[in-house]
């Protein structure tokens, strides 16, 4: 027998949800919201108090019901035409069921009166499908939804048990386009993976798609592009946009392979640039991002066959003038070259895709709301997988360890340096002072320049206090350790690349080398293009054993395979910039094992930067197995941790 109190509690509970309830009378529930509540909440509660006898129709409520959905796909001109249908529901009901699902409801009452328990996995798939193709409810209801042809690959791989996709006979023809032949002379010099890369570009071109060639540094992206340009039959000009320091490098590469392509480098004064662009035929134009920004009015009305972005990370911030400029130019085919398409955030890969295939990853607000926020802030694995599937076909990435089995080993070592007591005192005093400043409620988000100055001061003390204090005459513990590494390497008949993010640090190392009569070259942002090329050529001809290089100026576009030792004197925010610099030596043509020394001052901000390098790498590992960073990408919490007193 039930406890009277339980009976009273049950009456009160039901009364609180069902106003029509009266003792000894039948309770009728006819409102949809109350039916949902009764099925989902009250029946389970009743089971806790007594044995409940349910009719078969009520029992059927808890049997999951799949709905038959299908999508017809028809190819029309440059679009795919989709039509949603269901043998069980009309289009209006499909929308209603999806809205119920989005409102976290499990049950749905069909127009014919039947109440069903909706299959949550099926509805999740359908909802994701609609998000991934940016289909609005109004379009779904009307039918005949038009989407760009570049979504064909998404549909082609989307075979799922939850929805039938019915394609017309023209759909498969999109994937059967013939590609041009690679010239015989290039087939003889290309490696197998490079032939695959060129054919991949040609295939994308045939399908009016764009792509990112994201091969590891030193795998010959430039040669693959030159081969592509020699392979295509075209009547219009092509455009290569590159950092200014690499224009001559591109010219040299075309000449090196005796390319039959007519090249035209656009630089010099404005009048000269205008004259060169005024009478184009089918040349390959080479210019820099800076010149393009200044001359965008000259490029906007030119119809290019192909546009190639070298070091495409230059457009990672979609708000910059460089990113906005390249997206104003018209071309049949677009290609991006970069070893690091995703550097600090998903917004960067969005920006590159916005150049390649405008609209493929939607507008940025939609992308942020439905993908970036869900992946970064909410760690939704399902969304991560969906985005990965969307971008993967258009990113070709090969690693040296996978395709160059004959490439010598790269051995990396973190080389810790202990400060002397004077350096420790200076470092600690500055750290305390910075924390006092931060305690005065400085807003890190709006005062990043001031915070950067604080960080720079600590980093400089870690390298050599002479960078800040004129009254210090002796070299630092780190500089001394670096010089010992240089001397030891030279004794072993090895050649060295030394990188630092501070040109003033390179000056200090140069002074020490002068004192020891160690010959060297130095390359910074002040080195002009002609001298830069000459220094590289002379180093490759073994003129000196040591090359001092600023990370920003020389981290890309150099071939320095005569070096077998790489020293990173100070860590950058993320590891990719250092990896790119290391790959000046560890690339095709290297015959010796490459030793890499990362010099880290112990118990300082440098160790924390080392931790950040690993942390920042995780996100891009999911998509392209590489990353690179900058100070501006750090969160408030990460910045505060750098200044934390131990």
TrEMBL record:
<dbReference type="InterPro" id="IPR000330">
    <property type="entry name" value="SNF2_N"/>
</dbReference>
<feature type="domain" description="Helicase C-terminal">
    <location>
        <begin position="478"/>
        <end position="635"/>
    </location>
</feature>
<dbReference type="InterPro" id="IPR013663">
    <property type="entry name" value="Helicase_SWF/SNF/SWI_bac"/>
</dbReference>
<dbReference type="GO" id="GO:0016787">
    <property type="term" value="F:hydrolase activity"/>
</dbReference>
<dbReference type="Pfam" id="PF08455">
    <property type="entry name" value="SNF2_assoc"/>
</dbReference>
<dbReference type="InterPro" id="IPR027417">
    <property type="entry name" value="P-loop_NTPase"/>
</dbReference>
<dbReference type="InterPro" id="IPR001650">
    <property type="entry name" value="Helicase_C-like"/>
</dbReference>
<feature type="domain" description="Helicase ATP-binding">
    <location>
        <begin position="202"/>
        <end position="359"/>
    </location>
</feature>
<keyword id="KW-0378">Hydrolase</keyword>
<dbReference type="InterPro" id="IPR014001">
    <property type="entry name" value="Helicase_ATP-bd"/>
</dbReference>
<protein>
    <recommendedName>
        <fullName>Helicase SNF</fullName>
    </recommendedName>
</protein>
<dbReference type="InterPro" id="IPR038718">
    <property type="entry name" value="SNF2-like_sf"/>
</dbReference>
<dbReference type="GO" id="GO:0005524">
    <property type="term" value="F:ATP binding"/>
</dbReference>
<dbReference type="Pfam" id="PF00176">
    <property type="entry name" value="SNF2-rel_dom"/>
</dbReference>
<dbReference type="Pfam" id="PF00271">
    <property type="entry name" value="Helicase_C"/>
</dbReference>
<dbReference type="InterPro" id="IPR049730">
    <property type="entry name" value="SNF2/RAD54-like_C"/>
</dbReference>
